[in-house]
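User: Just a sanity check before I run the rest of the batch. Below are the structure tokens for the first item. I only need the designed sequence back.
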């Protein structure tokens, strides 16, 4: 049995065990839905739905599309460029134009669940590049980690530049400074650990025997420069998000100082990424209210967060739908070819 076949069997066992675990605990699948309902229940217990609905009617929907559609298109190009660089660096030399439809089509899955979209990208690339799934997943997780630290990067800059207007804000900024110092320290220690694993076989064996061993390949291969390059590729996407939100807020009549937006918008995005709600709903609205309710009436802030959220989802979904037929046809052909290869190997 070849090394590739051994890896495939190992991955199949992991996947089967994971599916069995989920089937034995079906309530896990329902947790994000309960989380979303709970958060919105608490929000609307405090803010009357009628007032939010009235504020939503004032949202300039077409102008929002005019702001967020170009942003979504550039976001997709940057996302695809980053994915192309990482896959070429750690897995296989795929071309940018090969990645574009893969990345776009999976935005449709991401509308339901971000992890589902990331898993879809990993599976698609696993079939297309004929690289073990867990090796591709390792690269996807490296990008996901750097997306989080991209937000930390901008928010850290905001923490350094922001001047609190009250004792409450000063306390929050102080806590954020400590939290970000710890976060950057954790990243440095993680990079040092994986660097040692490249040099020391015992450390590498220890990592391989942990729960993350099967998805550590790209992290072990990555040098400090690689982390920096991924951050540099991804950073413009958040800078554009800041501009898009700044213009959209102005269109809706909400004035938020730009430095405050730099500080707290990353925290809104981090809250949205928490795996406790559906389609990033609930957590992001709660974060908008927490950080920006002093800049406008709560119903208006909530209405803006919902309108902007759904507009961005619509624009991303529109781009995804344009490429979905092509991606579906290609994935079907790849699955058929993989099935035929497996059948031939079993003969």
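Assistant: Here's the designed sequence for the first item:
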């Amino acid at each position: 049995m070849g090394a590739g076949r051994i890896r495939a069997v190992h991955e199949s066992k992991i996947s089967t065990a994971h599916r069995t675990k989920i089937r034995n605990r079906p309530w896990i699948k329902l947790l994000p839905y309960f989380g979303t309902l709970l958060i919105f229940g608490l929000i609307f217990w405090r803010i009357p739905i009628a007032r939010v609905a009235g504020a939503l009617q004032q949202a300039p929907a077409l102008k929002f599309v005019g702001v967020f559609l170009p942003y979504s298109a550039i976001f997709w190009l940057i996302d695809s460029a980053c994915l192309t660089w990482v896959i070429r660096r750690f897995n296989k030399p795929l071309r940018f134009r090969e990645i574009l439809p893969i990345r776009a089509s999976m935005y449709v899955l991401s509308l339901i669940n971000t992890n589902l979209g990331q898993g879809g990208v990993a599976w698609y690339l696993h079939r297309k590049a004929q690289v073990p799934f867990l090796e591709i997943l390792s690269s996807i997780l490296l990008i996901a980690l750097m997306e989080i630290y991209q937000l930390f990067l901008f928010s850290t800059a905001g923490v350094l530049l922001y001047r609190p207007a009250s004792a409450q804000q000063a306390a929050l900024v102080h806590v954020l400074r400590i939290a970000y110092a710890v976060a950057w320290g954790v990243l440095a220690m993680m990079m040092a650990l994986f660097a040692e694993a490249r040099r020391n076989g015992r450390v590498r064996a220890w990592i391989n025997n942990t729960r993350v061993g099967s998805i550590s390949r790209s992290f072990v291969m990555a040098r400090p420069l690689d982390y920096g390059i991924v951050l540099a590729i991804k950073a413009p996407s958040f800078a554009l998000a800041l501009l898009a939100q700044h213009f959209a807020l102005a269109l809706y009549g909400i004035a938020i100082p730009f430095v405050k937006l730099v500080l707290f918008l990353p925290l809104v995005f981090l809250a949205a990424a928490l795996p406790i709600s559906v389609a990033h709903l609930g957590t992001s609205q709660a974060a908008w209210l927490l950080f920006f309710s002093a800049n406008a009436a709560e119903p208006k802030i909530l209405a803006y967060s919902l309108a902007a959220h759904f507009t961005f989802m619509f624009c991303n979904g529109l781009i995804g739908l344009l490429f979905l037929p092509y991606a579906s046809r290609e994935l079907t052909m790849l699955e058929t070819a993989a099935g035929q290869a497996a059948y031939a190997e079993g003969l």
